[in-house]
Amino acid sequence: MSKLTKNNVTGIAALLVHAANIDEIYSDHEKELIKDFIKSYLKDENANEILKNAEEIEKNSNQLLNYTNIIKENSLDIKKDIIEHLWKVLISDNTVDQYESNLMRRVCGLIYFSDKECGEIKLKLLNNK
């Protein structure tokens, strides 16, 4: 599945960290979900170390474009997977506020991913909770 380099995965993990931080509660559960994403692409790497790097990148960047440009260049399957991981992080606390919804709309627009498909992924995850 992976066409993502370690740097790509770290950058996308930073976007996941950004999503987790929007509600200003960055939980251990969200960290585990982000590490699951990292491990799904980089099986032999240290997920904790990559997460630390991603947290550092996110802390020093307020540019969503940095993250979305990486995603935009990948296949639809990889985009779907990343959107699914973003939703997993956002719905992990059982609420999605307007800022989280706005983030998803902006990300989908920037990576040319349809709102309809984004909504279907969200519904699928909510129905499987």
Describe the fold and architecture.
The chain is mainly α and 129 residues long. The chain has a single domain, classed as TerB-like. It has 7 helices and no strands. The protein has helices spanning 6-21, 28-41, 47-59, 64-72, 76-91, 98-110, 115-127. Helix 1 packs parallel to helix 5 (76-91) and helix 5 (76-91) crosses helix 7 (115-127). The radius of gyration is 13 Å and the shape is globular.
Write the layout of secondary structure elements.
Blueprint: H1 6-21, H2 28-41, H3 47-59, H4 64-72, H5 76-91, H6 98-110, H7 115-127
Helix pairs in contact: 1-2, 1-3, 1-4, 1-5, 2-3, 2-5, 5-7
Assigned CATH architecture: Orthogonal Bundle
Please estimate the helix content. over 70%
Name the helix and strand elements from N-terminus to C-terminus, one letter apiece: HHHHHHH
CATH class: Mainly Alpha
Rg on CA atoms, Å: 13 Å
* Subunit organisation of the chains: single chain
> Biggest β-sheet, characterized?
none
Topology, number of strands: 0
What is the count of structural domains?
1
Please give the alpha-carbon distance between the first and last residues.
25 Å
Q: Mean pLDDT score, rounded?
A: 92
Query: Any idea what the shape is?
Result: globular
At CATH level 3, the topology is: TerB-like
- Segments where pLDDT lies below 50 for 5+ residues? none
Comma- or semicolon-separated keywords:
single chain; 129 residues; mainly alpha; TerB-like; 73% helix; globular
Short synopsis of the structure:
Helices cover 73% and strands 0% of the residues. With 129 residues, the protein is mainly α.
